Amino acid sequence: MPEANAQLSEWVDLYSDELYTWASYKLNNPENAKDLVQDTFIAASQAFAKFEGRSSVRTWLFSILNNKIRDYFRKNKGRNIYMSDLQFEDSGDERFNEHGEWKPEFRPQAWTEADFNLLDDLDFRKVFDACINRLSDRFRNAIVWKFLEKKESDVICQELNVSPSNFWQIMHRAKLQLRACLENNWFKKAE
Amino acid sequence: MKFITHFFALSCRKASALMEKEQNFKLNFIEKQQLKWHRSICNPCTQYEIQTEYIDRIMEKHITDPLNQDVLKLSDAEKAHIKELCKH
User: Fold this and answer.
1) Is any Cβ of chain A less than 8 angstroms from the Cβ of B88?
2) 3-state secondary structure chain A
């Protein structure tokens, strides 16, 4: 099928960087992102005859990639979320004293200028990304998955194969870290 | 009275965790009362709650909006490799 080959080559030139950027960001792992982009084009080449141009090529490729990303998260869920690790980490948190009160240096301060226009600020986006990427893999995967899928938490739990109490504890730990990271790297500096 | 205060008392660590539970699932009656009580007396946890809700909403938007990402590039060799794999 020379026609299909030529067409696919063109799509690789046009869209592969964009797909790769998207996947790297979601996965936080460039090597695995490359594999998924590759798989996306292979799937596209196999389904080429079925693509009827009802959506744009770009939309079509992105929908294939997003399915690959979902599969990736599903496959990796067992590796990345272990209950035993969580219990270990949950046993002592450096932000709280022995009575479970905030230590003075970790006590949440009021944030000035916390509004939604911040998302238009590229520097803020970079800090936000950096803070997400500093989370451990299982925290990051859980939180990214939750916001990517926009589903009810009990559905997310099934998909990630964690118990509800495990899930909200993961989210709690992730938010503690994320909040502190944003405060230290953005909001304190803004004052 | 002492018993009652003790019954409703919650550490900040537990309170901030229950906020997460509340957001994703449901609290039982006792947890609800504990959290309500804690919110009314603890300013740092109130701040914490405002901020994590803010983070949630920002996260929602940020994660589904790839516009502001720096574009990463595959090398020419990698692209050629993909093209090769796609050939029938």
Assistant:
1) yes
2) CHHHHHHHHHHHHHHHHHHHHHHHHHHCCHHHHHHHHHHHHHHHHHCHHHCCCCCCHHHHHHHHHHHHHHHHHHHHHHHHCCHHHHHHHHHCCCCECCCCCECHHHCCCCCCCCCHHHHHCHHHHHHHHHHHHCCCHHHHHHHHHHHHHCCCHHHHHHHHCCCHHHHHHHHHHHHHHHHHHHHHHHHHHHC
Q: Quick check: A148 and B87 CB within 8 A?
A: no
* CATH classification for the domain delimited by A2-76, as one of 3.50.70.10, 1.10.1740.10, 1.10.3720.10, 3.40.50.300: 1.10.1740.10
A43 CB within 8 Å of a chain B CB: no
Whether chain A has a CB inside 8 Å of the CB on B26: the answer is: no
Q: Which of B44, B52, B56 is facing A107, going by the closest CB pair?
A: B44
Per domain, the residue ranges of chain A are: 2-76, 81-190
User: For residue range B22-38, what is the model confidence (pLDDT) as tens digits?
Assistant: 999 999 999 999 999 99
- Chain B stretch 5-24, residues whose beta carbon is closer than 8 A to a beta carbon of chain A: 11-14, 16-17, 19-21, 23-24
Least Cα separation, residue A79 to chain B (angstroms): 23
Residuewise pLDDT in 10s, chain A (191 residues): 678 888 899 999 999 999 998 888 777 788 999 999 999 999 999 988 888 777 889 989 999 998 898 888 777 655 444 444 444 444 447 889 988 899 998 899 888 877 778 888 888 888 888 898 888 877 887 888 888 777 788 888 887 778 888 899 889 999 999 999 999 888 886 55
Q: Give the CATH fold of the A81-190 domain.
A: Arc Repressor Mutant, subunit A (1.10.10)
Cβ–Cβ below 8 Å for B58 and A116: yes
What is the pTM assigned to this prediction?
0.71
